[in-house]
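Morning!

As promised:
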Amino acid sequence: MSTIKAEVRHYIQENLLLGAGAVSPGDDESFLEHQVLDSTGFLELVAHLEETYGIKIGDDEMVPENLDSLNAIEAFVQRKREVKA
Amino acid sequence: MNPHAPPLRGSLPPEGADPAWGGPAPDRMSATPLGPQSLELDCAAELARISAWIPRVLTQKLRRRGLVVAISGGIDSSVCAALSVRAIGAKKVFGLLLPERDSSGFSTERGRQLAEHLGIEYQVHDIAPALEALGCYAQRDEAIRRVVPAYGEGWKNKIVIAGGVEGGINYFKLVVQSPEGEQQSVRLPLREYLQIVAATNFKQRVRKTMDYYHADRLNYAVVGTPNRLEYDQGFFVKNGDGSADLKPIAHLYKTQVYAMARHLGLPEAICSAVPTTDTYTLPQGQDEFYFALPYAQMDLALWALEHGHTAEELAVALGMTAEQAQRVYDDIRAKRRATEYLAAAPELMPA
């Protein structure tokens, strides 16, 4: 698994699922559909991504296509880092 | 009363009701076409039903001698106060007007007008000093300054919801206005958003403390004033306006509450009042802060969802695309999930 996906999965497990035995989402599974994250959870995740990867997520980028699965997040963060570089 | 209206969680059964009353609201198909007529209410029949229910609950369940109603000047609390008077008489209803620093002057004025109209005893109590002492304004302003450093004396603020209706993820924006009238809007980071809301929630919780002071003093019960849309979607503060002994309009859509206000002959200023939160210093509609759509459309969407109508049918009724209507349905379900705990009893460790 890529570093980004592993790191975000770990963040979700540690901070949002709190070791309560909930099943971690698959790489392509929707956080919304599987009720892994609600809107507050997404805001926590966005803050984490901005801080960890040194990126700034715009209002128009707050969409499921960028943030609603591990695969989507990985692709999004990589795009943002490439633009930044 | 709409015959298709499903029972609400926790509501008391009407006389002769089906024993299943009080269970979860089921999704079910309805032959009624979807449109404004879906929300039509037989106000006279519903008034009679609520007027019979209130004294029954008061005497048999709550064992109190009257009702305390906090009157905001808005439509919901006004209708609740009027229903209370119809049910048990003006002498057994005590009204409370609880303005604070950010309240609109119109709210208190309309509240007084209503109390005088109903002929109830009432008291106006400015809760600003209590809120000041608790740090409500200071904590809120400190969080705002973390995102807008220039914010200070003479500035105004509000929070607006964004993202969800456009197909994005719900988030909140802080809108501030300088004393010169210049507005700016900035997305709120989670920490600041939570602190602003937490500080602002002092307002509803202090008001509830006042409600119960007077309820205890008079041996009365406290009336909660949410309408069905607010109650279903968790648009209330836990241990704040969400706390009450009885909620006589939690089964009525907001559209129906307006119809009831007119049926009750309430003052025109109240019947035509636009719903606001009256909590932030800039004018703020409820749909800006919380709901995906203005209340009349939200009412219809909620009604449609509860009666098994498809997103395509809702789209036709509201003049939007099926995709947008589906997002509204998704938003309703998401808010139910997120706020379910607000109305729930505390979790207990199984013995």
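Chain A has four helices and no strands.

Hope this helps with the figure draft.
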